[in-house]
Records
---
Amino acid sequence: MSEDADVPKETLLRAFRLMTLGRAADERGVNLQRQGRIGFYVPMNGQEAAQVGCGLALDPKDWIVPAYREIGVALARGIPLKTLFDQFYGNAADILKGRQMPCHYGYKAFRYVTASSPVGTQIILAAGIAQASVYKGEKVVSVPFFGDGATSSNDFHAGMNFAGVLHLPVIFFCQNNGWAISLPREKQTRSASLAAKADAYGFPGVQVDGNDFIAVYRAVQEARQRAIAGKGPTLIEAVTFRMGPHSTSDDPSRYRKQEEVASWRAKDPIEHLRDFLVAKKWIDEAGIDKIEEEAKQQVQEAIEAAEKSPPPSPETLFDDVFHDRWRILEEERSEFMELLKEGVLRA
Ligand SMILES: Cc1ncc(C[n+]2csc(CCOP(=O)(O)OP(=O)(O)O)c2C)c(N)n1
Ligand SMILES: [Mg+2]
């Protein structure tokens, strides 16, 4: 673990709680899909330090522009667990009205932009959001989250170039988790590191141990200070590992070796932080057990609440299509509800 000089004990304990909560939520997320209770899930397992480290180093007004794997960032931003599980179930309580794939959420109130599934598209959005913030005179940063694979996308180059040329307050946060589904990092690029790619765009790129909370937290804090001081963007490459499948539609045993997974299990980010806290005597075994139990309980409660909520009413399909209630659309809504009532259509 990096030196702890400037990261307060409270922050580290908070990080440990969030990382533990994130893992508990994540494990249940995968299991719920396996049990047929939700349709899809994208686990972050193994990437907790990178995600919570970055999330906690940001200001609540900073823009988060995620990919699809960022539950750790969402929790660090303060998005309630129940809100997330309502979205995974796509139930009537889901703010997004069950319209998005599970894990593809976004919440305006949290400045958490809707997840991006097409690889890399969030990178240009983040650059544009940063430019808008500058126009508005807001002292905030914009943070796209993406993987090693996304650094080969057109949008990565466009976003990095745009932010570099315009000197925008962007922290390009790359979680290099070793794999882009079945494509290993070695086959992604011949670049010595992903951080090195920043050179071409005229701003710093730093590589950090993505399983070391303090290292990530510090790197993001530093990048944030630079951005807010008008010194432009930074690319951070957090080196980590995806312990689970790419998504619940993937079987990683088809393309990667058990030994690789085992070697990363030994570098577990939560255990890493836990050992550090124990060595400092900031937490003991009983405290750890309590945090783990509370995390599981919170997740259980969120799931129970989500399962109590019915599916969204079919007529909400017609909401939000236009700003004003349009006569033709209202007629279609009535006709649709009639057909449902008659049993011609089934919800
Ligand atoms: C433009 C585009 N191409 C392909 C895909 C299919 N796809 C989804 S995720 C993914 C891999 C992304 O890998 P990486 O950027 O390393 O992120 P990770 O999933 O490892 O977090 C691919 C190829 C897609 N969603 N969008
Ligand atoms: Mg990857």
Note: Residues 147-149, 177, 179-180 surround magnesium ion (ligand 2) (CB under 6 Å).
---
Amino acid sequence: MTKIGIPRTLSYYTFYPLWKTFLEEIGLEVILSPPTNKKTLDLGVQETVNDACVPIKLYHGHVMALKDKVDFLFIPRLVKADDKNTFCPKFLGLPDMVRFSREDLPPIIDPTFRMKSLRASLFGFLYNIGRQFSASKTSIIQGYLRARKAHKKYHYLLNRGLFPSEAMENLNSPLREIDFPGPGKEELTLAVIGYPYSIFDPYISGNLLKNLQKMGIGIITPENISSKDLKTFSRYLPQNFFWYYSNRAAWAALHLINKAKKIDGIIHVTAFGCGPDAMLNKLLELEAKHHDQLPFLSISIDEHSGEAGILTRLEAFIDMLEHKKKAEGSKTA
Ligand code: SF4
């Protein structure tokens, strides 16, 4: 069977169930790169230009992990996922960046993903991929329908509070059998804001989410906010960002600060070398300050950041939040 490789980073966190379902339906075997480890990152750093952001370096590491195991690499050129937002230029140039990084890579399948909406444009996008592999019209239509369903359910599960790995594991489970997180059981709840490929990759984020959970902290991420709520805050700023993931992160934070009012602080995970993050970080810091001095912590990840350093900063931040909560409790008592 023809093998096609998908790197476990960047758009993986948003689209993997869609890509996988469709590609399998047209008769391909999908090979996912293994979870990130030191070697993945080291290889990525070695194969990428110096000034690339750390997620792009990591992507190259995942490509390296796949290159000798697959017949093709699937690297769509992501341009737009709706009628307004464009993906960051690094996403637009990703297939070319990878293609010219080495000469010994398998052929790259790089269809252009420019959606007004999935409903309007997804079929054409998938149809072109199917035809490249000489798939029958029936399997393309079947694949399209199943892929859309998988994508919809995946995002529904994320909106109900699951993290991507949990949502992917539960994709085929009936809803009644899924253990969704309950509302506000924890003493402290934090908004963890950032791009999904930064916050959900345990290696690159220094196990941030797991360590917060171990401390008993409730977590809300942009992936847990519905498109409807995000859209409401797309009208809040006089000027939005140009980039898809930066806007999602900004709107999610604005929603949680202004409307949900159930967070005790914000952690912004920024990626070293990311231009949009420099502006986003300042915006979030100012918004937090203007809303009752909401505690704000910025954690920058790069190829040298280790779990111990991130954990020390987290512990100090949580200590401060606990003291603050106690002090507020004794004032109201
Ligand atoms: S948004 Fe930032 S972190 Fe993401 S790919 Fe673009 S430059 Fe890199």
Note: The longest strand covers residues 265-271.
---
Amino acid sequence: MSIRMEPTIFRFPHSRLYDFYTRVFFLKVYEQFAKWIPVDNPQGKVLDVGATAGYLEVALAKIHPGLAVYSTDLSPHMVYLNKKVIKGNNLQGRVVAKREDAYNLSFADNSFDLVINSFTFHHWDKPRRMFSELYRVLKPSGEMFIIDGKKGFNYEEMKQFCRTVGFGILGRTLARVMARLVWIDFVSTGYAQRALSSSSFNKATCEGAGVFMFLHGLKPATA
Ligand SMILES: C[S@@+](CC[C@H](N)C(=O)[O-])C[C@H]1O[C@@H](n2cnc3c(N)ncnc32)[C@H](O)[C@@H]1O
């Protein structure tokens, strides 16, 4: 069974609810994601599109103190929550929260070394347009790295992931319910690969691994 549980833009009060359960259940997940993100330039500029309250950016900035991180979302309330999270973690100046439409970013061409995102790809109804905007703001040789849930993951894969991030009993119970009964409208790796293949990225791959899929693209050095 698949139920569309989420709106595309997380406005108040949905933003508050999402923020609550990410704080309770997902902080360890973002810490794990931050370790997986390929940071080639530890002094570089990173952009997240659809960052919600920015917990992934906080985890990333703690691992790589030299990074300048832009944490963006279209929802004004999410940007407000993100600013509070940045302040609470003393990351002002290193992580910047900004309201941005990922389809139409205000940043100049060739601005970022790395563009990242988690759990948002399945919300993008125009993935090719999104890839072309992300490609535009990346510097030559810059990378795009996107993590999302994989459509059709199974209970064993979810259990394995819970072990990896060290979920306690509450997290494991929630995961069990999610995996067995309801799941958000994640998309298949085939769908993501087709969208990536028609983009301008080099080495554009979508790889399924356990409950996740990883989308990766490289902007050519000569672009
Ligand atoms: C499912 S949440 C995922 C958030 C976060 N990356 C995470 O891992 O929890 C999707 C977010 O994308 C934002 N969003 C949706 N469309 C957007 C757009 N066009 N530009 C910027 N943000 C967008 C929503 O407001 C929401 O906060």
Note: Strands lie at 45-49, 68-73, 95-99, 112-118, 138-149, 202-209, 212-218.
---
Amino acid sequence: MSFARRAVPGLVALAVGVGLVACDARSGQPSDRRALALGLDPSDRGEPVTASAGKPSGFLMGQLHMHSGRSGDSETPPEVAARWYADRGFDFVFFTDHNVVTDTPDLPGMLTLPGMELTQNLRTCTPPRGAPCLLHVTALFVDPGLGAVSFAQASSLDRGALYGRAVDLAHGWGALSMLNHPNFADAADLEVVLALAERGTFLLEVENRAVDSRNEGGAGRPSTEQLWDDALTRGARVFAVATDDAHHYDDAAAVRARGEIAYVGHRGWVMVRATRSPASIRRALEAGDFYATTGLVLDRVEWRGRRLGVRALGEQVTFEVVGTGGAVLHRAAGPQLEWDVPEEVRGYVRVRARDAAGRRALCQPVFLD
Ligand SMILES: [Zn+2]
Ligand SMILES: [Zn+2]
């Protein structure tokens, strides 16, 4: 997600709109500086996680946000990044380079799919929040022939309008859109989530696992999970996604040796109930038939009538059923949750699970009304 660690020959398409933020490359250790500026501990190394179990049957392991050397802030060739994911058991990976579409031949057992991180980096926008406006939306299922894109000068600096033109662009291509890292540089808020949901964006990065995503919120901002609940409470049909936003692969150690933060993979992904074809994966995403995970694996996610059934493959798992406003309606110890949602519960319910190692899984909401 770091928006430009070095200049990108031929990618002037990054020059977006009014007051573009100059690439903060050329200056040594931009990623550390940025992390420090955001009050983060640069010693947080953001290592890959170990999944709590292997892949359960019926689910595909998928990555919806990762970068290759076709982004200015990654140096790994696309084929090498794809191989990195295939070696870790992924069934599909979307390339989401900044303002350029990337695709490679599929690997045995893993689809590589074309996406794009529609990246608008501006010095300012409205309302201002004391940080550059780093407004990023991912388009999934992009025509691989699209090449690079650029945004015209913005006629409005309103955050919602800037985001809106990006998702409209994605939808005009027939792609799905995803709102990325809403707390990174305080980029998006509830108003933006609701406005984009109205425009057809139903994927929200609740767990963008880059170390500077600030998913936990603070300083007056809600956590990304609370943001999700707030949107659901307002009736938006939005699904939670976990992603890596990886930029570094086999080069992670070298990046750290330079004193920079490495943005690595295998930290957040989705488990999708689909067969290994783009059409099936797309249908499952559209239906919300998937869950987000930071390593905790579920092998059963069921909803029958008003009965929830979830089973987790992990140690000392706890479940929470969450409803309107983010309120916890029910708690249970794992490995299995069975709960009949009381008749008086309205709105939505969703299930989250956590294991002893802190790994989490977020199931998608079910709307009761
Ligand atoms: Zn990114
Ligand atoms: Zn980003």
Note: Confidence is low (pLDDT under 50) at residues 1-37.
